[in-house]
């Protein structure tokens, strides 16, 4: 569908990249709209784990911060896990957002074992009665 839409479109010089991005975004939105459902945090299982994935630079960490803030405002216990151990400054950036949102964070060192960090976060979230664990990934 994307190829078909782009083949009939014409873009002004310099607007090609923006035009392509808009078409791709619109087509992705159409696909996701068919499966989108409201986020529901039910009684069990606890913690609910939200694994946030996406390409570098797509805004995962900022989205996690906004989601953590929103969930905390809804009176949910929230914890973050810094599973992106590969991007320089990813752990520090998430730690800053966790502090601003007033939520705990589980992290390791840069280049560390991401799976081990997430495992530890699930363990701690379960032990402390956290409602939602949000995991940042690489």
Word description of this protein:
The structure is a single chain. By secondary structure, the chain is α/β, with parallel strands linked by helices. It has 2 domains: 2-33, no CATH class; 48-136, Rossmann fold. The chain contains 5 helices and 4 strands; from the N terminus they run ααβαβαβαβ. Helix 4 (90-101) links the parallel strand 2 (78-82) and strand 3. The longest helix has 18 residues, at 16-33.
Strand content: 5-15%
Shape, please? globular
Secondary structure: number of strands: 4
Rg is 18 Å
CATH-derived architecture of the largest domain: 3-Layer(aba) Sandwich
**In CATH, what is the homologous superfamily of the largest domain?**
P-loop containing nucleotide triphosphate hydrolases
Helical segment count: 5
**Pairing-aware structural class of the strands and helices?**
alpha/beta
């Amino acid at each position: 569908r994307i190829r078909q839409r782009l083949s009939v479109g014409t873009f002004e010089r310099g607007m090609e990249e923006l035009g392509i991005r808009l078409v791709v975004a619109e087509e992705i939105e159409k696909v996701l709209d068919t499966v989108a459902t409201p986020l529901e945090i039910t009684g069990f299982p606890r913690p609910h784990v939200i694994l946030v994935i996406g390409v570098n630079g797509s805004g995962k960490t900022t989205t996690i911060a906004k989601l953590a803030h929103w969930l905390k405002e809804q009176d949910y216990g929230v914890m973050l896990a810094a599973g992106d151990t590969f991007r320089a400054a990813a752990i520090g950036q998430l730690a800053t957002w966790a502090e601003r949102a007033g939520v705990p964070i589980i992290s390791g060192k840069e280049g560390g074992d991401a799976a081990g960090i997430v495992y530890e976060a699930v363990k701690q979230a379960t032990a402390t009665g956290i409602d939602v664990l949000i995991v940042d990934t690489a």
